[in-house]
Amino acid sequence: MTTDPSSPLPVDLPVDRSPVESSPADRSPSPASSSRPAARAQSELIRWFDGRGEIAVAFSGGVDSSVVLAAALRSTAPAVTAVTAVSPSVATWQLELAQSIATHLGATHRLIETHEVELPEYRVNDASRCFHCKSTLYQTLHQLCQSPTLRDATIVSGTNADDLGDYRPGIAAGDQAGVLKPLAELKIDKAAVREIAHRFGLPNASLPASPCLASRIAYGVPVTVERLQRVEKAEDLLRELGFETVRVRYHDGDLARIEVPADQIARLTDAPIRTELSKHFSEIGFRYITLDLQGFSSGSMNRQLVSLGQPIGSGK
């Protein structure tokens, strides 16, 4: 499947390939600062693509891959294509976001179906699940890059410097597939990524990270399309109720463990919200509905890897 936006770049996004200067409004609420000026990191990122031929960006619509795509489009690369996976493990809202960002940037956007859920080694959901998922994605991407429209394109991901500190088997899959990591290579961390995103004028610059739906399912609980759909419906409901940063962790016995930021926990216990959640989660297929009193924690499922004898890195 292919989408090629025909509309021109938005008026607030420069068409030339030079770094975009941020306005005072962009700078004042800047989410974080890095060890070097964001303008310098932005320029280095744009220059990174020079001389590497055509570029294919593994594009999720998240802020990391969006920054990589925006930089590539401003480089001297002869052609840049964003490629997004379509799979039951990718939430519908994330796919729509990727399409929206690609259109915003005026990028050529390709959608490719991946079939990791059909793989027994993926469904078993052990500590290497992400490796099998990313391997499938990159194999499909490599096949696409043998087509006449993308022949021999350099494949890049949005892996940033911070990602290297956590347990990320998907990064190993990318390394084996020859996928390059410009953000990590240039030592650009998440804080710097967000600053650069603001400078590029990206609408998702402050969007919280949201890994694939399979990351919500506890290790050892088989990944099925039905379970992925339950998680998606449950998180959609919570977002409709105003919880922007949310995870619904799926544990054995059809138990849902809800994570929201600690300062929003009290609101979840309000009688009207609690009643609505209990009703709808039961209808979705959860037998037990629990609230994690420790609050939201990115990568919290990786704590379970200790019992599996796997490294967890920084466990962010």
How many strand segments? Answer: 8
- Please give the CATH architecture of the largest domain: 3-Layer(aba) Sandwich
What gyration radius follows from the Cα positions, in whole Å? 20 Å
Low-confidence residue ranges: 1-34, 311-316
How many structurally independent domains?
2
End-to-end C-alpha gap: 35 Å
The amount of helix comes to: 25-40%
Characterize the main sheet. Answer: 5 strands, mixed
Given this structure, which CATH class of the largest domain is correct? Alpha Beta
In the CATH hierarchy, the third-tier topology of the largest domain is known as: Rossmann fold
How would you characterize the overall build of this protein?
The protein contains twelve helices and eight strands. α6 (129-144) packs parallel to α7 (169-176) and α10 runs antiparallel to α12 (271-284). The chain has two domains: 2-200, Rossmann fold (3-Layer(aba) Sandwich); 213-306. Helices cover 37% and strands 11% of the residues. It starts with a strand and ends in a 25-residue tail after the last strand. A five-stranded mixed sheet has the order 1-4-3-2-5. It has a three-stranded mixed sheet with strand order 6-7-8, with helices on one face. The protein is of the alpha/beta class.
